[in-house]
Amino acid sequence: MTFPAHPERRAAVVTGASSGFGQAIAELLAAHGHPVVLGARRVDRLEELAGKIRAGGGEALALPLDLADPASIDAFTAAAEAQMGPIEVVVSNAGEVVLGSAIEFDPDAFVAQLQVNLMGAQRLVAGLGPALVARQRGDIVFVTSDVVRLPRSQMAAYVASKHALEGLARAMQMELEGTGVRVGIVRPGPAMTEQGSTWDIDTIAPVLAEWTAWGLMRHDGYLRATDVAAAVHAVVSMPRGAHLTLVEVEPEAPVRDDGIRA
Q1: 96 lies in which domain range?
Q2: Torsion-angle region of residue 42: left (phi > 0), alpha (psi -120 to 50) or beta?
Q3: From the candidates 76, 105, 158, 211, which is the catalytic residue?
Q4: Neighbouring residues of 244: CB distance < 8 A, sequence distance ≥ 6
Q5: Number of domains in the chain
Q6: Full-prediction pTM beyond 0.70?
Q7: Is residue 262 part of a domain?
Q8: What is the CATH classification number for the domain harbouring 152?
Q9: Percentage of the chain modeled with pLDDT above 70
Q10: Active site includes 222?
């Protein structure tokens, strides 16, 4: 039984590439020879990153993308392949989190979270996926969250959207089995990125207290964006014939200095 090797040129789309996970993913893929299409709302940051990648000998294209706007997604997917050529890797990373309990969350704001974190991701892969299937090769990676396994209070919309996103990914894994297109999930744990950095102490302190009460804050370690990027690269660089379906990445606990082993 043989499988065709990956082509030499594997152009990759990365959403949410203006900061955090997305930026690190784009940089690492570019460092490994992937031409990258960068998508986000903050185009100035994308252009800066694209310039950095090109200065290092890579190939990069910055395109505006607003996952809350269907027309923006459609324009992005059309331009990505038209300007970069055949897309081999799609990394659906962009997302946002707004704190709030289920019953206190404004229903329209709740829907807006689902639009960005779920519906936008589905529209993205609906725009890019058929060409991968037609070529019988490629990788689609969804960056989700360990809230799927460990739900957190005061994140009702985010938790719901990430559960749904993994459901979408799991269904796609079944639907695309045997097409040559692999669908992977990278599920990060707590990380130190810009997401959530705008929350003031009066907002986050009681939330952290709740999470501690539920046993969700075992230690004060956090993932780096580069850790998640390494997991994404591992998924898309697996040799043909193998398929990483789910990779959960958690922060390693700081080494204890009390001489007691866990």
Answers
A1: 11-247
A2: beta
A3: 158
A4: 184, 234, 235, 238
A5: 1
A6: yes
A7: no
A8: 3.40.50.720
A9: 88
A10: no
